[in-house]
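re: ur msg from earlier - yeah i can do the zinc ion complex, just paste it... oh wait u already did. ok heres what im feeding in:
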Amino acid sequence: MGYSAAMATSDPTVPAGPGGPGGSTSAWRLQLLGLLLFLFIPLVLFLFVRHPAPVGVSLAAGVVLMLGHRFLARPYMGRALAAKCLWCNRALSSGAAGSEPLELATGAGPLTARCCPEHRAPAARFFAFLDTWRLALRAGIFLPLLLLLLSLAAVAGGRSDLPLPGITAVFKLAVGLTVNLAALGPLVGREKGTPTVPFPVHNFFLLGVRNLLWIFRLVGIWWIVQGVLYFLGR
Ligand SMILES: [Zn+2]
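and the outut:
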């Protein structure tokens, strides 16, 4: 249902923010808002991975932010759908001219993103790759996340015998490998009809896929190094 509203704003006949009155100001605000909404993600990861004491408060705050984020990020996606290139995050001029549609399927229904003409292909390859590898990618994110959250809850509940540093290292290693696998998508993916997005789709609209993938690649490599060093005992 949320997507029907989002779809309405993707209508190319509706002037999108950047093309409307005061266009450059609203485009700038849209980019700033996307950045602020993105910052929820590293904040949540910090609370889970560093879990500053008291652990129970960090866990609760992280879960509340993670679950609450979508209520801000989904309306943002509704505004960004027609107003920004999903790949490079550039503000698009109003109307369909100068951009191309990218159809995506999500758990909440279909949506139409827009891309610069030269950026539709890498975005399509990326989402096709996510769809093809969805089971491995979901497992690589959600299983270590579940393990970490259950462990934090147990520690907060009084368990003192859990190897929390080791569990955190497993989380970093698994997530680092998984996001680097996902980031191969634009390079090796093959476009197919309408790919289904196996992760919360609104997160891809905050900074654009290309920026998001570079952040994930770099943080992922750092986490892989940290995870490996932990198990090497350094
Ligand atoms: Zn673009």
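cool cool. Residues 55-80 form the longest helix (26 residues). ping me if u need the other ligands too
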